[in-house]
Amino acid sequence: MGTLELFNLLNQSRQKNARLGITGHLLYADGIFTQCLEGPAASLDGLWQSLMKDPRHDAITVIDRTSVRDRRFEEWS
User: Fold this and answer.
1) What CA–CA distance (Å, rounded) separates 26 from 37?
2) How many CB atoms lie under 10 A from the CB of residue 36?
3) Which end of the chain is more exposed for a tag (fewer CB within 10 A), N or C?
């Protein structure tokens, strides 16, 4: 994935996440993404379904799905 593709993906994700009330962080290194998401369960479930249908994604692994009281990435879209 090139720099322009990553930039476009980041902008699209920020807009979609803002609409859904989702915050979190996204790390990309050596062709692999690591992501932490937080927000309303219904929004996260919808995003998960979208990710599972997206052909750009494979080998997705959920490490933890825990309810939290306070967001850690409240200012990060």
Assistant:
1) 8
2) 14
3) N
Instruction: Give the pTM.
Output: 0.81
Tell me which amino acid residue 57 is: H
Write 70-77 long-range contacts (CB < 8 A, 24+): 71/23, 71/38, 72/36, 72/38, 73/23, 73/24, 73/25, 73/36, 73/38, 74/23, 75/23, 76/23, 76/24, 76/25, 77/13, 77/14, 77/17, 77/18, 77/23
For tokens 């932490």, the residue is 36
Half-sphere exposure of 53 (CA within 13 A, CB side): 6
Cα 9 to the chain's mean position, in Å? 11
Residue-wise pLDDT for 22-67, tens only, equals 999 989 898 888 999 999 999 999 999 998 998 988 889 999 999 8
